[in-house]
Structures are given as structure tokens and as C-alpha cells.
Design brief:
By secondary structure, the chain is an alpha+beta fold. It has helices at about 40-45, 50-65, 80-85, 90-95, and strands spanning about 5-15, 15-25, 30-40, 75.
């Protein structure tokens, strides 16, 4: 992720989890992404009292370190990241 990129996350309750809208700005036109997070995914991937907003923001920092914002899927469930980047879960659960 470049210093010029900013990540905005807004999550709302949706069934057994959250629907999150992510806007990535900087470096040209902004991109908008829809990400779903279940309560079980939040419990497994986030530590302590992390919010879905925090988990999704950290997940986008992870993604932007590996690909441009234009390459990120426009709509996906959070676990999909692990199918493209096997190190995702180990990296995202490690806080440091």
C-alpha cells in the first residue's frame, strides 16, 4: 500500500455478520468494494475486541501490499482472500 492510498470502511449488520463497504482512494480513481464478514470469521481472524471494520481495514492493508486496488475483487466474502494468498490468515491474526 502506498502512503497516498487511504482506506475507508463502513460495516452494517447483515444476517449473521456484516456487510462492509470499502473505499480505497489515492493513485487515480477510487475503487469501491463490498466485503461480507460472518461472526465466526470475526472471532477466528480478529483478536480481542476487534470490530469488523478493523478486520476489514487490516485485510485491505494486507491486499494493497500485494496488488493494486484495481485488482482487488469488487465483491467477496473475507475468507476468499486466503484462496488467493495462503499466508493471509496467519498474517492477519498476527498483531504486531
Amino acid at each position: 500500500m502506498s502512503a497516498a492510498e487511504a482506506i475507508g470502511v463502513r460495516c452494517r449488520t447483515d444476517g449473521d455478520g456484516w456487510a462492509c463497504e470499502v473505499t480505497v482512494t489515492g493513485g487515480g480513481s477510487p475503487t469501491v468494494h463490498e466485503v461480507s464478514v460472518s461472526t465466526s470469521e470475526l472471532a477466528r481472524l480478529a483478536q480481542g475486541d476487534a470490530t469488523p471494520d478493523d478486520l476489514v481495514r487490516r485485510s485491505f492493508v494486507f491486499l494493497l501490499a500485494r496488488e493494486p486496488k484495481e485488482s482487488i475483487l469488487r465483491r467477496f466474502a473475507l475468507p476468499v482472500i486466503g484462496s488467493y494468498f495462503p499466508e493471509y490468515e496467519a498474517t492477519i491474526t498476527r498483531r504486531g
